[in-house]
Design brief:
Blueprint: E1 6-12, E2 26-27, E3 30-31, H1 32-41, E4 47-52, H2 55-63, E5 67-70, H3 78-88, E6 95-98, H4 108-119, E7 124-130, H5 134-138, E8 144-147, E9 153-157, E10 175-184, H6 185-191, H7 198-203, H8 207-212, E11 217-221, H9 232-243
Parallel strand pairs: 1-4, 1-6, 4-5, 7-11
Antiparallel strand pairs: 2-3, 6-10, 7-10, 8-9, 8-10
Amino acid sequence: MDDKVKLGIIPARFASTRFPGKPLADLGGKPMIQRVYEQAQKANLDRVIVATDDNRIRDVVESFKGHVEMTNPNIPSGTDRCRAVLKNSGIKADWVVNIQGDEPFIDPEHINALLDLLEKGAEIATLISRAEEMDEVKNSNRVKVVRTQSGKALYFSRSNIPFNRSGNMKAEDYFIHLGIYGFQADTLMELGELDAGKLEKFESLEQLRWLENGYQIYTDLVYSRPDAVDTPEDLLLIKKKYFL
């Protein structure tokens, strides 16, 4: 692993329907993007970069001596923003980890787990955890995944897969997808040439485009989940949990 250049990219947009300015929200005296950045630095990455389309985020990242790259505001997804950094910055990398910017306490070992999968030859790597309750399984905002015994993802869905025909399945029999990815750098660039397929359009899940085009996604099962901030209400809960 040591001879590979390992790059972590944190896509960060200011505009957000549910929480505008979320990356700059104060969390215990630091902006949230700084907490994500500092956690990522604890992983086995050679470099961490924030990819943003907003000068306010750029200025804040530079204020804590972080690395930042500006990207086009019209880029549609975090994966596309990572690809733009790799394409336009001149930065050389063998492996790229797309780190979500709304998980201020992401476990560095989760990032390392992705790097381990990439070292084993995975084109694309991601993480899963067991469902905690059946309400979560039924929630269409929680993406479920089925996989082979070797960990290769077979399908992702907003529906509760596999179908519980026997009625005997429990919550822990389902796998929930965690939205963090690792890529071979060459694979990441190739994905940008793919058109959206029917499966992606049906489910609104970009990883189905990759599966539909024959790419293999390997998963690793982790036993904890970082607290994510999707709304201002989530931010208040995290402040109470960690700082009050």
